[in-house]
Amino acid sequence: MEQVPSHLWQYAQDQAFLSDAAGETKRFLTELARDASIDVHLVEARPKTLASYTEKSQKTNDDGTPKYTDPAAQIHDCVAARVIVYTTRARNDLADLIVSRCEYRERQNPGDKKHNGYDSEHIVISGIKDPAVQRRYVALAKYLGKYQGLEIQVRSVAGHAWAEYEHDIRYKSGAYQELTPGDKGRVDQYFVEAGGMRRYMDNIFDEIEELLRPQETGDVAPADEPVIGVDEPSPEGLNPTPLDPAALGELIADRFPRDEPGDSPSLAVLVEQLAALDVTTIGQLEAALSNLEEGQVARLMDYPTETTQVRKLDDELLAVFLDRYVEAAGDADRRQLLRLRLRRVRGRFTIYSLEEPNRTRRPVAAARAVRDLVKFVAEHAGIPATIIGGAIGASQNDVTPGYFPKEVQTSAGPVYVATNLSRSYAENLMRELVSRVPGSGLSVKRAGDLLCEAPPEISAADSA
């Protein structure tokens, strides 16, 4: 009786274990994409069948020698995963996340060498760095310790369509094999041309993504300026309860009563991050969140599945504090996730653009738009024309305490402008400021729609 090789015998015994590892691989990749707010079309993972493993382990080189001298250590797709995302930007982001969270043997895009239209990130991971993640995904961690490698492919939807059809025609189609060399060459050339169309589609999808969620912040908002302002009351009116995990848990339970709470370590992370921003009481946190409408940020994040109370508050704080919140994170992995998620709120709240007769400025946040208008009005009508009681003044003392005035340098001198502004109050200030420069041609648009415009210049005849 022929003896079964040990690697095949062991592989046959591991079938149930490999299936568990594949299931955990899918959950791991899904969680990673979700935590970074990367839109995913499909995540799939599967163990290689025993028949397929046997066939692959018995392959030989051209000279007849075994291709794999130690199949158990050399075959890295015993469990393989594939993630299909919508854009090449998302593909690159997710691939970067994978290699930052995992030990890996290789990362390559075979299309870089083939130049035939194929485009897919191939990553072979060999371990998970975070011990806490290892404890959550026991079967996956055990698999990586035993089988030495797990292959993950990350593609765009356009790249996946090209790869699937090309593989089906060239490697599975009997009709292709029966073609003459000349006709095979024509089919191959068509796939090269289709690769050009694939690149065009990827580029268009990336352009759409950039409009929706810009990567470059430019002059959208300074790092110290929140996207959503805060009408903060005086310190005496704030709830002085110290902010700790227990108090924070109660606050978010009231704020998101229909969602799962999340884990205690995550609450502790938020408390520590808020402390780095000098938010140390329940009252200060409530003030920071006071101008968010219910569900406003959640709608922008567009969660693919039910999420936790902690994650929702995390995203609301990201919307309020922007880059300051990212930088306050305690470790590089968390900062990486927050930067990716930041695009969703930054791109959606920077919606105000100032338009002059010969110039249209890039969209900015509400508080920034008010300051830009103050500078325009001061330079066209003088500093007195900018003064609005409690919000805009010639000195810091002219601004109501708790509104944290910011100095705006103009050609006529400095003006001090409140920064903690709700959207509605900021828009009222915009309307008032624009009304004070008649005939200037200035207008403000909100998300492309006209919010307000300067009235026509009043002639001497009209005033008479």
TrEMBL record:
Name listed for the protein in its UniProt record: RelA/SpoT domain-containing protein
GO biological processes: guanosine tetraphosphate metabolic process
Transmembrane segments: none
InterPro entries linked: NT_sf, RelA_SpoT
Ranges of residues in domain RelA/SpoT: 45-177
CDD domains: NT_Rel-Spo_like
